[in-house]
Amino acid sequence: MDVKADAGRFDQVEADALVVSVFEGEDPTEGVIGEVNQAMEGLIKDLMGSDELRGKSGDMVYLYRPGNVKARRVLLVGVGKREDFDLDSVRQLAGSAVRYLRGKGARTVAILRRSQIDIVAAAEAAVEGALIGLYEPDVYRTSDREERRIETLILCTAGGGSAEDLERGIARGRILGESTNFTRELVNEPSNAMTPEALSLKAQEMASRLGMEIDILDEPRLHELGMGAILGVGRGSDEPSRLVVLRYLPEGAPADRTVAIVGKGVTFDTGGISIKPSDGMEKMKYDMAGAAAVFGAMRAIGLLQPNVNVLGIAPLVENMPSGRALKPGDIVKGLSGRSIEILNTDAEGRLILSDAISYARRLGATEIIDLATLTGAVSVALGHVNAAILGTDDELVARLIGAGNAAGEKLWRLPLDPEFREIVKSDVADLKNSTGRAAGTITAAHFLREFAEDTPWAHLDIAGMAWQNEKKAFMAKGPSGFGVRTLVNYVACNE
């Protein structure tokens, strides 16, 4: 999709459709909307007066041959109250509009800037939202695929912002949108295609294109290093396990800071011997969404080139039942040297992350952020609106929450009270990998905390957010790419 800014008059822009946002309760004769109303010969005023257009979020009115506007069509989109309109509103407006107009056969879409939000940030958000909105998880369909395409997106800026600044905002929005979709493409692949080895090769291809260092540790190297937790989870599968390490080390970056982002990569999770119910198990291909988000974030970081050392680490396994699989009651020892009692083989994500976090420390990380589709409990606690965040460093957690808010990815902090720490201790080993139903998200985080030790650490449980169970106006059903933009914002805004 080609993207360009047009600083001229909105009514002179040639496009298949012009998108105009309408605020709830606004006067259709005042300001920018008044200018649009005048160009459309009072039609907006008539629509709002008849209650056909209220400006409430989700309202859409599609108009043909709209008065003295050169665009062939006008799409009026309700965006709610003006005071609630923010960058995520821009993303959702752009995503909803392009998805709707693609269905109408539009190829060139113009979006009129209406708010006082910083024009460069708004341009970035609009491009990001449009690209995310246009993604469809239908790659394997042989019929009934969405073949219509939006070829050009025009941002009508009404003379605001320099051309150079706008181009920078557009370029950044494209990188973030495409990197999010890169993650969604990885998560969308079926597990017979996206094995641990196949996923590691996708990371290798991406790293090669960007000139980024990558190390892929195979099972002999994992054995040599003593990563018994990763190997233990993966030994029930015929697919060999891997650990991927991506290194973004820009020349001149401060040597005293290295951010490690660590993502859970279970390419399919049956639960192992503690097997899951069959109903809904097909979705367990998304259990590598944490690793995929790390790869998407590293792609964006490699293109944006912030002046920060960043490690992207992803343990990749398949959790299967077999005669070789881990059993409840088994004990494994990981890279840290700690012994772990296995009480539930379906609590496998924290096992592989324990080795990856330990390895991040060994590689010199000064702060560690992990993200994972770790617990079903997080959806019980927070539904599908917020991901959970827990951490040992208040400043790190606060910055991540801020980065998530800027990205439209909400994070809600849960406690790490010391009383929970006692619960993860085992009677027969150092730790146990499962503690029962109570406070499942918190106890899982406490388990991981043991391996971060004294390194500032934060954990994002994205199990409720990495997959959209229902189609939204601005996003297709399926993988969401949650976490990519939060990680990038955190790294790029805290250089």
Helical content stands at 25-40%
CATH superfamily of the largest domain: Zn peptidases
Point out poorly predicted stretches: none
Query: How many distinct domains?
Result: 2
Shape: elongated
Describe the structure.
The chain is of the alpha/beta class and 495 residues long. It has two domains: 2-161, Leucine Aminopeptidase, subunit E, domain 1, CATH 3.40.220.10; 189-493, Aminopeptidase, CATH 3.40.630.10. It is 37% helix and 20% strand. The strands form four sheets. Strands 7, 8, 9, 10, 11, 14, 15, 16 and 18 form a nine-stranded mixed β-sheet that branches. Strands 1-6-5-2-4-3 form a six-stranded mixed β-sheet, covered by helices on one side.
List keywords for this structure.
495 residues, alpha/beta, Leucine Aminopeptidase, subunit E, domain 1, Aminopeptidase, 2 domains, nine-stranded mixed sheet, six-stranded mixed sheet, elongated
